[in-house]
Amino acid sequence: MVSIEKMIDKLEELPTPDFVVQKIITVASDPNASVKELANAIMMDASLSSKVLKLANSAYYGIPREITVLNEAIMILGFKTVRNLAMSVFTYGALFQGSQGEDSGINREALWRHFVYVAVASETLGEILGYPVKEELFINGLLHDIGKVALDVISPKVMRALHKITSEKKRNFTEAEDLLEVPSHTSIGAKLVEKWGLPEMIVQSVAGHHNPELYIDSINAEVVAMVHIADVVINTMYPGDSLSYGKPELSHEALNILSLKPRILPRFIDRLKDKLVKVDDFVNM
Amino acid sequence: MADVTAVRGEKIITLFSSFIMELNNVKSGDQIFSALVKILRKTVNPKWVVILDEKKKLLLSFPENDDQEYMRFSELIDWAIQNKSHSFYPAGDEIVGFLPMIRAGEVRGIILLGLNEEPKVEEIDSLRVFSFLSSTVAENVMLLEEVMEKNRLVEETMNYLHSILDTFPEMVIVVSQEGEIVYMNKRFVEEGDNDEIREKALGVAKEVIETGVRRVGEVESEGQFYSIVAEPLKYQSTIQAVTTIMNVTSTKELERLKQLDRMKTEFVANISHELRTPLAAIKAYSETILYSLEEMDPDTLKDFTKTIYEESQHLENLLNELLDFSKIERKALKMERQNVNVVEIIKSAVDSMMEYANSNKVQLTFESSDEVIEAYVDPTRIKQVALNLISNAIKYSKKDIENKYVRVKLKKKEDTFLLSVEDNGIGIPEDKLDKIFEKFYRVDSSLTYEVSGTGLGLSIVKEIVELHGGKIWVESEEGRGSTFYVEIPLGLEGNNGQHREDD
Ligand SMILES: [Fe+2]
Ligand SMILES: [Fe+2]
User: Fold this and answer.
1) The overall pTM is greater than 0.90
2) Cis peptide before B100 (omega within 30 of 0)
3) What is the least distance, in Å, from the CA of B65 to any CA of chain A?
4) What number is the ipTM of this complex?
5) Of B329, B360, B375, which closes a domain?
């Protein structure tokens, strides 16, 4: 129906993180960067600055004192969290920009909620399993289904067809992709984040979040596995948000990679529920 | 730019290396935190560092003070712990860092530090890793301390139990299923570790291990008596035997004295009877003679007087035995030693017993290796020994068999002479062999009811033999007969054959 090459060509049509976001990503991962540099980068976009500050003061972080300047936000929440906030603002914008032509008719609010929830679930799982840089998990979770955004923009017809199958036949999104023999959202998404110049970790979690066993030998195996589990848990709790209606498939390999004991799952779900009630500022951006 | 990064990278590696070196040497939680403070000072050179546990209890403060200044950040501390987030907060002219120490998803404490300037990304990352490493090592060290404490407790309890077991007056050992002694208390080490006791105790223990039930035993070693009690003990799916060995010598001695007392009572009753029998006969016969002398024919009269004579002789023997015994008891028995020919003495004893032997249909024989065996002994006492042994041999002959015999043999050896008296009489049970030389002892009343005597004979014989520096023993088989042996030193050297009075 549609070849991957054609799709990739059309990726050009997608919004690319603008100079500001690029700069933020670069600064946040530069070991020599200072608070001032990152603050300056964000301040170049006034709208972005105010949205970042709003998120920094959101219930999700629950900082006991109000943050009024970016410098404080960066120091208190850390470089990577602030980068995550900027990425969230950008991704939200990309999703709701939509295509110029016809509309796929999908529920973008629900899909965005899925992004935020998987980001929070990944971070929470990282926290529980003692992963030292839990902020990285947030951005990996946030971007895992970015391929769906790409599809929606590049080929609304395909997206509409996929959505029809998944919603009417209660199938998983990946099953619909196989049925229609279209390029998968994982491969398109991976190409996209690679093109954006995001780190390999994000490329792999986007590419492997339905098949974590593919990256078992990667240094990012744990991150990919955690994003996978977060995605499965959120899809189980909120079926349909991600345009996937079938029974989510949990990879046993992911459990093995993390040496995950089933008994920690209830603790994970409890903590996750506590957090999900505090993410309204992200969901309704 | 690249060079600067490389230099920084190297600096970080150096810092990590020295931190890990420090961590290698820590043995307590406090030391970890000191190592942490050291590394923090090298990394970001904070003005101050405070380490709290997850309940905000102060663990360490650098520089040392207890003004609790840090409590003004109480809500931020709570927030950092709650969110497990590493953050920095500008407060006046300093930047305060909050670094929760997270281990397996749980906050185990928090590091607070006051910085002069905003930290760089790299520094934040390093601090984050330091706090992670510290909490991991701290937890391991605490676990180790816990284990050590448990070990110490176990050891203390062991020592306590050991010292209790060591105060026991009994010896206690534990024997494993393989028959090895796996525990012995102090008493056993000091007193019981000799082959006889060990062997017997292990034997009893082995029975317990084989049968799974309590077993008891006894052992005599170096004149001491021990009772052994072994109980089964289930240990790690094997059976061991807790074996207690108790010295019961004093209990035994008491028992012996009690028995002696009982025997003395029996003896008095017995001897009264023994004395009364000949006396009654003498009285009856002499009474008959006195009142019926006129009607008696000379033969009857002779018979009667003979009986009276024999009975009075018997009475005299009994009285002599009693007298000897009381001398032994008072240690007043004296040997009148002189140079004599032992062959003659024994021969005269055999001769004088010949009639008694004939009347019991016992063939009494005597042979000697030499015609003359000269020895320095008390002739009366040696004859008494021979008489006693021969009369016993005849006395304890079987009642109704043919070819009853008593063989008396004398043999000269290098420095001694050996007298043996062999019979084919009733014999002595094996378990009674070592008791027959005891005072008042008679093997068994059921065997001896037909036989009269004081029961003192053999104990007097033994005393006489021992006063001559000799020894007496017996070989016997129940139902087949006995052989008594007496071996006495010739006692000639040093006296030149001259008569000498002993005292
Ligand atoms: Fe997906
Ligand atoms: Fe998803």
Assistant:
1) no
2) no
3) 26
4) 0.77
5) B329
